[in-house]
Amino acid sequence: MKGLLIVGHGSEKSHYAKVMEIHKERIEKMGIFDEVEICYVARNRKPTPDEAVRKMKSDEIYVVPILISKGIHFTEDLPAFFNFKPGQREGVFDGKRIVICDPIGEDRFVTLAIINAVFKLLE
Amino acid sequence: MKGLLIVGHGSEKSHYAKVMEIHKERIEKMGIFDEVEICYVARNRKPTPDEAVRKMKSDEIYVVPILISKGIHFTEDLPAFFNFKPGQREGVFDGKRIVICDPIGEDRFVTLAIINAVFKLLE
């Protein structure tokens, strides 16, 4: 089984969690992954990445941070949840193979999302 | 003249500014806008949105936040830089028409960026 774990920063405002749910539901419908879950990397936000992985059934989990850049949350905080060293991108946690993907920030689809924000106003 | 102002949260790590530059350069090459500039909404990050607008020559500026959700940075901090009320999305600042677009978070292109982060590993 292949799983996707979407990692957000998290926010006190409920809209952030709603946005995470929107992406989860869209990707579930596409059927690329056997399961899609959500977690948060900022302090005190739940579920944490390790909690999410423990609840997942997949033996291979792709972890995708909805973060703009490779900051501390990406290089240190996220790996630490899986007992990885800073910068470590692959390993085993809770008996599952964990692969940490690049944060989405540089992706060309993000460039298109920026332009689309303007197109939406012109419709 | 139509301008695009990309608003990031900002980070102490230099990679964040690099990601902003990547999007700016890609969008400049597309020629949709007469000018493309960058600014930051988090405390003490430079340039601030108002500083960026003052340097721009466009009479119409579309402001696009690279933020996931409609949190405090979007609803209160960003409008305040233009002397707008909380939640205000359009107005005039420095003699220019300012239009604040939705944050990119919910966009379908962001969903695709999440999936693409995994595809990139499989290449």
UniProtKB/TrEMBL annotation, chains A, B:
Q: Which CDD domains match?
A: CbiX_SirB_N
A Gene Ontology molecular function term for this protein is:
lyase activity
* Stored SUPFAM superfamilies: Chelatase (SSF53800)
Keyword annotations from UniProtKB, A to Z:
Lyase, Metal-binding
> What Gene3D superfamilies does this protein map onto?
3.40.50.1400
A Pfam family cross-referenced in the UniProt record is CbiX
| Record-given protein name | Cobalamin (Vitamin B12) biosynthesis CbiX protein
